[in-house]
Amino acid sequence: MNVIRHWLRQPYARLIALMGLVLIVPLCLRAALGWSNPFGYLSDLGIASLLIVLLHRRSWWVALPVLLAWGFMTLATAELVCAVGRFPSASDLHYLIDPQFLENSTSAGFSQPWLATALLLGLVAWLITHWVGRSTPALVLPRGAWVAPLLLIFAHWGAQHQYPSEEDQWRLFSLPHQLLAASVGDVQAGTEEWLEGNLVDAPPQMSGLIQLDLDGQKLLAAPGRARNVLIITLEGVPGAYIGVNRQALHSSYQENLMPNLGRWAERAMSTPDYVLHSHQTIRGLYAMLCGDYDKLDNGTPKGVEMLTQSERNLACLPSQLHKHGFATHYLQGAGLRFMAKDKIMPHIGFDATHGLEWFTNSSYLEFPWGKDDKAFFEGALDYVSQLKKQKKPWMLTLLTVGTHQPYSAPENYLRHYETPKLAAVGYLDDALGQFLSDLERQGILADTLVVITSDESHGIDGVRLASSWGFNLVLAPEQAQLPKVKSGVYGHIDLSASILDYLALPVPSTLSGRSLFRDYETGREIMSFTNGKLRYHDGKGTLTECDFQQRCRYYASDGFIADRATFTGQYAGNRARQITARATALNHSLLRTQLNQHYQFGSSTIIPLKAQIKDDWADNLIGAQYLEMPKGSHTRVRLTVRSVNPQQNAHILLKAKELERDVQLGLPAEMVVTADHPLKMDFSFDNPEPRKAFSFHLLGYGFGAVEVSDFSVITELPVTPEILKDPPVESSAQPS
């Protein structure tokens, strides 16, 4: 003990403890998780040396908050990458320090518990050296120590330019380094624009991205014989999980995680080079069902924007099938109000829209988002049986939620698989396999066009473009006439046109894309924005990928999804801005501006309350999420909530979040709402800087039900100086 105390009092003890925390732990993390890459190790060395020169010899109370934030980001980054295969972007920084994120992500425990333990022990050891050696001056670093982090970071930058790598960002950067590089990239882009002076960029060529192309050779000589349409959407499943896809694209990934789905893929028409255009379920569903790119950034989802439209929604697939005599239905395993699907789905043409409230069958396990996949498909089979009794043809879209973070599966699956994520995928595969077998046994496949796909991809570490790699399996009565493997590049933007083309129904000219039921002699342009990278394929053998540093690299690649591609060059400046301009033009296909838009999320729907609030997202009573508010604008919110039952009081909270972090708007604390004294609020706030991913969370608990008759969000430019002042929040409810 005396020896340890003596060592802790040495001038170098604090330095060694700090090095162990900020250098040794990240290096061990990179090696343990298979993220080994010279660029990654160089990045860790650069950030570690920067933290050392900044924090060594500083008071513990000055350095501790920095180390806590750094450790928290390190742990949360590992959890995010392991859970969804995505490195955090700059917009995720607040997301990573939100306790709600960690609570949801780790409800089944940390995927890397040793990392949390190592960070905690390292931090405690560092604090002990400060306490025991408080009377001993710390070792003085050489004056040239400040040069080390600059040289390491500059060496990383130079090597990246000389030997560019397309590996995943978490293999190449530590999170602080990535955020620093992104900031430098923004400054560099601004400087380039300033140096180019009055040079005006030519408008981007958009026809290849937005056109409806039905000029290909038909695969079927006559209209499809299917009477009904069933779209099965699997939460977060990448195309690499399908063996047919892996073989067709010669993928080095060989894990057979979904053997049941793989066997059905061998009976189906599979499209290996199938592109997912973005993350988030609501964005994937919009692209699938409305034949249009959703936002290729973090702006307001177009499904929400569609609520302000009264014409473009009529071109969506459900509306078109309803117009031609189909009964259109939507069923998901989660509540509908999250992301306003309770409003969006009816608006785009679904006659019936159901979520968790529809199911009466018991669940096999508790899952915060809703029905586990086995219980969901059992309920879905009953739903299909009811549709089968109808005289009208029907269209049903299903959405699972069991493979959404946090992943959950029965205990026997958790014992069999290495991680909860893999166990959830295996559980989904078994449930889906049984569902498809039941459909076949009941004769439903004989007269139904079945499309199996995913809304987004939760990615796979080490697999190129896994975050954009989707899949599309088609089961049709004419299966023998369809190819086993559909060649060409397709994506979610093609699904609506494809189904209408199969049925030989008119395809609205406002839809974009190609038909999966046609062969094309030439390539096509297509884009995606996943894992923080904007990707564009020109249809002529070149894939361009633009990263967070405002730098674009281009590769020789016949298709979009490929196991490898040949790097041919890189650029920035005007050419890079043209790629961004294409994405910006696609983003504005519905609304030219976010100004003067009146979103109404209220309705006459009666919403039962839960006994307690467990999750700000899953328990949300309204769907006002991921809104976009331009710089210099002014947002006004009106809200009316009443308790339906005169004998029951409702406890209501309203929260605001930006980039998943709580935003203080001066809103009242928890309020009691009664049938006689409804909650009425009218407040506004300024947006001095652009807001993206801005969400309102209306939460309530009690034993009754409520009606949210009005929830209006209006963003506009201020008319007079007086309106810039935030009026006090008015409320007629009683404080809790």
Features of this protein?
22 helices; 3 domains; single chain; globular; six-stranded antiparallel β-sheet; alpha+beta; 736 residues; seven-stranded mixed β-sheet
Rg over CA atoms: 27 Å
CATH architecture of the largest domain: 3-Layer(aba) Sandwich
Total beta strands = 30
Approximately how much helix is present in the residues?
A: 25-40%
Which descriptor suits the 3D outline? globular
Strand content: 15-25%
- How are strands sequenced across the largest beta sheet? 4-11-9-3-8-6-7
CATH class of the largest domain: Alpha Beta
What would you note in describing this structure?
It is built from 22 helices and 30 strands. 35% of the residues lie in helices and 20% in strands. The strands form seven sheets. A seven-stranded mixed sheet has the order 4-11-9-3-8-6-7, sandwiched between helices. It has 736 residues and is α+β, with helices and mostly antiparallel strands.
Give a concise summary.
The chain is α+β, with helices and mostly antiparallel strands.
